[in-house]
Write a structure and sequence with these properties.
Layout lengths: L30 E8 L6 E2 L7 E4 L3 H10 L4 E7 L16 H12 L3 E6 L27 H18 L3 E4 L6 H11 L8 E6 L6 H6 L20 H13 L3 E5 L5 H10 L4 E5 L1 H12 L5 H15 L3 E4 L2 H7 L1
Helix pairs in contact: 2-3, 3-4
The structure holds ligand PBG.
The site of ligand PBG has 12 residues, from helix 5.
């Protein structure tokens, strides 16, 4: 029996043809694996809300990176949990700080590409991403002192580059952070070290598990006066534009899944490479549902990451990196 259907999109969905016409794909070289190095422990400590992830002691940092490399992922993003915290976060830029010591080892003993997170929240005793007004401590109107924080971020970035970091990723949403870090890196002869800016970083509930993992939750108040309002999109273009003007090399949108419209807009409006950060809460959600038998872990994770590529992301920072790379 004849049919008057001339166009049948299903023709291209047959096995053997489907892969030929696929527009987006994932590869291990798109993925960046975050790892947690902890100066307060001698043993690996599982992170409860991020199944499969651990805080590892400094002496295991090379072993941890080798596990990542074995999956085909070449790049790690390093977070540190310092031995001590104080009001300024001074262990963030200490030459013998946790990230600095780990990066020295990893850069000499492995071929991994090393990116370091630049922020003070893991290092300050109050858990905010910069220096705070001491008189405002505990007050709901407390604000992080923007300009006083800039030189501390710059010093931290230089100390990471001195230790051997290949790239730095400032995440504090401090106005002017990219320019301050660029100037300090250049003055310290690190003009070849790129900056991947957390350019559009939202004040998000999806960071919950990370704050347990990195022990960086604010001890009072929240981050609404420095991270972006989830209701805003045009503001993201303004934030990203500023970072571009200040010299950002790679533009990050964070979180990813609930912000794919922003990923897409940034890739449309700017020419720099765009990174999407598939954050801890996005990871924990899929794990929790998979534990219940409600979702399939690997296919759901793969689909989420693929959607970030489809939205336009060039790179994806994800706690699924190792598992997905292994399955590709
Ligand atoms: C540090 C930082 C955070 C994340 C990355 N860098 C936490 C925050 O801003 O509260 C979150 C990462 C994640 O949830 O996976 N400022």
């Amino acid at each position: 029996m004849g049919s008057n259907l001339r166009t049948r999109p299903r023709r291209l969905r047959r096995d053997g043809i489907r892969p030929l016409v696929r527009e987006s794909s994932l590869s291990a070289t798109d993925l960046i694996a975050p790892i947690f190095i902890d100066a307060t422990t001698d043993e690996r400590v599982p992170i409860e809300s991020m199944p499969g992830h651990e805080r590892v002691p400094i002496h295991e940092s090379v072993a941890r990176v080798r596990e990542v490399l074995a999956t085909g992922v070449d790049t790690v993003l390093i977070f540190g949990i310092p031995s001590e915290k104080d009001s300024n976060g001074s262990r963030a830029w200490a030459g013998d700080g946790v990230v600095q010591r780990a990066v020295q080892r990893i850069s000499t003993e492995t071929p991994a590409t090393i990116i370091t997170d630049i922020c003070l929240c893991e290092y300050t005793d109050h858990g905010h991403c910069g220096v705070i007004e001491s008189e405002a401590r505990e007050s709901p109107t407390m604000t992080v002192k923007n300009d006083e924080t800039l030189s501390l971020l710059g010093q931290t970035a230089v100390s990471h580059a001195d230790a051997g970091a290949d790239m730095v990723a400032p995440s504090s949403m401090t106005d002017g952070m990219v320019a301050a870090i660029r100037d300090d890196l250049d003055d310290a002869s690190h003009s070849e070290v790129p900056i991947m800016s957390y350019a559009a970083k939202y004040e998000s509930s999806f960071y919950g598990p990370f704050r347990d993992a990195a022990d960086g939750a604010p001890s009072f108040g929240d981050r609404r006066h420095y991270q972006m309002d989830p209701g805003n999109s045009r503001e993201a273009m303004r934030e990203v534009g500023l970072d571009v003007d200040e010299g950002a090399d790679i533009l990050m949108v964070k979180p990813a899944l609930a912000y794919l419209d922003i990923v897409n807009r940034v890739t449309d409006e700017f020419t720099q490479p765009v990174a999407a950060y598939n954050v801890s809460g996005e990871y924990a959600m899929i794990h929790a549902a998979a534990d219940q038998g409600w979702l399939d872990l690997e296919t759901t994770a793969h689909e989420s990451l693929l959607s970030m590529k489809r939205a336009g992301a060039d790179l994806i920072i994800t706690y699924f990196a190792e598992q997905i790379a292994d399955s590709l």
